[in-house]
Amino acid sequence: MRRPLLAIGAVLGLFGCTEPPPDAYATRTVGSIAGEPAGTDARNEACQAQPGRASPADRPVLRTREVYCGGWTQPAARITEMSGSATSADLDAIAAAGLWRNWLDQRVTCAAPTRTTIAGGTEARLLACTRRAGGWPHVAIVTRGASGPVVADGVATALPVIERLATGQSSGSGSGSGGRSAALELAVARLSADAFGATDVGRYEQLMTLGRDLNQTENFAAAEDAYRAALAVQERVLGRDNPNTATAMLALAVNLSNQKRLAEAQLLLDRAATLAPQAADPATPARVLHYRGLHALNADQPGQAIPLLQQAETAYAALIPGGAAGREGDGTELVADPVVQSAVLGLAEAKRNRAVALTRTGHASEAQDLVAESRQVLRRAGLEPNMMVGRALRTEAGADIRLGRTEAAAQLLERAAGRFGIAAAGERPEAVTLFLAGQQRIRSGRRAEALVAFRTGAGILRARQIGLPVPLIVAYLDALDQEANASPGQAPALRAEMFGAAQLAQRSSTARFVQQASARLGASEGNPAVQGAVRGLQDADRELRELFAERDASGGQNQALDDRIAAAQQRRAQAEGEVAAAAPGYRQLLLASVDADSVARSLSRGEALLTMLLGPREGFVMVVRDGRVDARRIPLGEEAVAALVHRVRQSSELGAGGVPRFDTQAAFELHRLLVAPLAASLDGAENLVVAPDGPLLALPFGLLLEQPASPDALGGAPWLIRRHAIVHVPSPQTLVTLRAAGTGSTAPNPYIGFGDFVPPSAGQFARAFPANRCGTDARLATGLGRLPGTRAEVLTSSQLLGAGPSRAILGAEFTIPFLKRQPLNQFRVVHLATHALLPGELSCLTEPSIVASPPAGAASADASFLKASEVLDLKMDADLVILSACNTGGPGGEGGGEALSGLARAFFYAGARGLMVTHWAVDDAAAALTVADTLRRQQGRATSAAALRGAQLLILDEAGRNLPAAFAHPYYWAPFVLIGDGRRGGQPRT
C-alpha cells in the first residue's frame, strides 16, 4: 500500500549539513586566484601563492599566504609568518598548544610533533595529520623564519612549497640549498606523490559538495552518482579499506536507500560500520547509527528506527562540549569548530528523524515535542539553515495531520514551502510541500487555496521533469474534479488538466523501463545509426550500474575491477557524446511527460485511451478521445480494486482442481467501476488503448464483463473484447513515444521461432539447484515437461509467414547459445514457445527466465535458462515478440500490481515494438490456435491488436461448436495480451 509522501520525504538525510564545510580553508573562487609562482608540489603540480586569511595565533601576524596547486580552487596550504621569539622552546610550545594548534585540531587529527629540520637545515616541528573531512593525509609545520615563528599546514603533497615559502626561497629553488630537508624524508610515506595531489582532494570535495546539493533537492539518483564518484577517488588514493572512506560510503548508502534500493544500501552501511570507529572524523560512528535509522524508515520499519536514532543522538551529543547544545548562547564557539558543528546539525536531524518515526508509530504528540527540541538545538547554536528548518516544519505538520489539526498542518506546510523556496527554489522539496499543503486545504474545504498550491507545485514538477507518489496527485485530481462539477463551463479545460496532473504521478518500474526502450525507438526516427548510439548509451549505463554494484558487494582491494570501471566510464562518456550529436532530443524525449493534446495527436480516428489512477481510498478513470478528455471519480481505492483483480485472476488460472468457476461478478464489478462511467466517450471506439495503474496491470482488460453474466454461459457473455481491440501500455507517455517510432520494423525477414525444448535431466537440475539450499526448486523444475504442442505452433507460424522450416528452431537445437548467435534484429516476428520460470515460483531463481534445451555436454541446467539480464543484451528490431510461455506477463513476484515480468521489460529494452505475452499458464491447444490465427490475420492489413482480438473472438464463437465448450472460459482465450503497439497496419509484406 502506498504511504503519504510525508512518510518518505520527511526522513531524507541532509548529509551535507552533517559534514564539516568543504571550504574550511578556502574563501576564493577560480576567478579571484592570482598571485606569485610558488614552484611545484611533490606531484609536480604548478602552484601559486597569494595573500590569504590569517590563522588564529598567540603572536602578532605579519602576513599569511595561501597556496593553490594544480588548478584546484581550494588552498592546498596556508603559511602564516609571526613576529617574536623563535627559540626551540617557542617552537615546541606553538606546536603543542595555543590558538593556532586549537584551530588546527578542529580540522585535522595530528600525531605528536616530531623535531626535524626543513630545507636549509632550519629547525622545525613536523606534525603528521589526517583531515577529518575525507581522511586525506595532511601535514603541519612550525619553524623559524626571518622575523619569528612560521606556522603552516596543508595537504601532504604541498610540503615542498611550504618549505620554500617558510624559508623565503625562490620558486625556482629545489628543496633547498645548504642542507637537505629531513622533514621531507620523514613525510615521504604520507606524501604519496604518485598517488594523489591537490587536484584529487579538490575533486573529492567538489563531488561531495555536489552530492550534498543534489541530496538537498531530493534528486537521489544524481546524488548517488556524485557520491559514488567521490568514493571512487578516495578508494583509489587511500585504499579500499581506509576508515575515512566511510563518510562517502554512508552518503552513497543513504541515497541508495532513499531510492528504495535497500539491499545495495545495506551492504554499504555494513561496510561503513566496520570502518567508522577508526575514521578521522569523530562524528562518523554517530552518522552510521543515524543512517541506519534512516534506512529503517525507508524500509517502513519505524519501530526499528527509533532506538537507532536515539543512539545516534547520544553519540552526537557526546561530541558537543559542555552540553553547549542545551544552553542559550550565540553559538559562536560551536560554529567555529567543524566537528562540533557537524555534531549539532546531526543531533538536530536525528531528533527530527526520530519524530518522523514516532509519528508513524502513533505517537504524534511526542513527535511534536521532539521537533521543537530539534529546532531549539539549531537555534541555540546559531545554526538554522532554511533547508533544515523547512524539513522540521514539514515533520511538525505531519504530527498535526495525525492529530487531526488540518488548519495548523496547512499553515506549517506553507511556511515550510517558503523555506524550501529560499533554500532550493523550484526543486522537489518545494513541490512536495506545496502538494502536502494543498492536500490539507482540500480536506478543510478551501478548494481555491488548494488549487493554487497544487498548480504551483505542478509547475515545478513539469519544469524539473519529476513525479510524486500517487496519493498526493489524487488529492490534486480531487480538487480539479470538485471545481469541474461546480463550474460546468470550465469543465472541459479542468478535465484536460486532470489528465495532465495524473501524468505527474510516479511511474512504476515497468513504465520507466518501457519508456526508456521506446524513447530509443522514437529518437531513432527510423535511423539505425541513431538507434545504435542511444542503445550504446543505455548499455553503458547498465554496465556501470552492474560494475558499481559488484564493487559495493566485494571485499578488499580489487584493482582489476577498478580498471574495468574506469574503462566503462570512458565508454559511457564516449557514448553520451555520440548520442548528443546523433539524437540531441533523446533526453527530452526520455523524460518528458505528456498532456492530453499530445495523446490526442497520437491516437487514430476511432481510437481511445483509457487510463486510471488509484489512491488509498478513491481513484479516477479518464478517457482521451477525439481531442477531448472525460474523467470520473471511482469510490474504491487501491486495496479494494486489488481484491477484485485477485478474484478475477484466481478464477481464471488453472488450479489443483482444474479450471475454476469464473467469477463473473468480480469481472462485471471492475467494468462497472473502470469502464462504464465513461461509456459515452468510448462508444464506437474500435481500438482501446489501456494504461492501467497499480494492481490493474495484472489484468487482461478484455475479460471484463459489460453486463452480469452466468458462469455457465460464457461463450455469449458480453466481454469487453467483443466491443474493442485492446492494447495495453504501461503509461500514456509510452504510447506517445512508441507511436513516434513509426508503424513497423525495417527488418528484412518475416519470422524466427523457437520451441519444443528438451528438458534438462534430473542430474542437471540437481546441479543447478543444490539440494542443501534449493532441493525443493530442483524437484519443481524437474517436473517441467516437454511441450510437444509447441513444435506444431512454431512450424505453423513459420509456414503462415512464409519463413520456411529453417526459421523454426526446435528440440535439441533450441539452446540459449544458438539463440544468442542468431541475428534477431533481422526478423519482424520473434517467437518463443516454451516454459518461463519466475522468481516467485522457485526460491533460488533470482531472475525471470525462459527455459531452453541444455547445450550438448552441459553439466548443469544453468545453461538452459535465458535470464532477463541476458535478454537485455539481445538486439532486436521486431514488430512483435511472442512469448507463448507460462506467466511471461504475470505478476513476477514484484507485488504492488506490477504485472509485467522482468522478461517482458527486458524484451522491450532489446528492441521490441510490441509484446504478445500471457498472464497465466496457457493451454497448449488454445495457445497454438491463438498464435497461429493472430499471425494469419496479420498477413492481411490487420494490426496486431485487431489480429489478436480476432483470434480470441474465434475461440469464443467456436466454443461448443468446432471447439470444446470449455474454451469459452477465460483460462483458454484471455491470457494473451498485446503490450505496446506491435504492428499498426499498412500494406502486407511479402
From TrEMBL:
Pfam families: CHAT, TPR_12. PROSITE patterns: PROKAR_LIPOPROTEIN (PS51257). Residues 36-57 are annotated as: Disordered. Residues 667-981 form the CHAT domain. Coiled coil: none annotated. InterPro entries: CHAT_dom (IPR024983), TPR-like_helical_dom_sf (IPR011990). This is CHAT domain-containing protein.
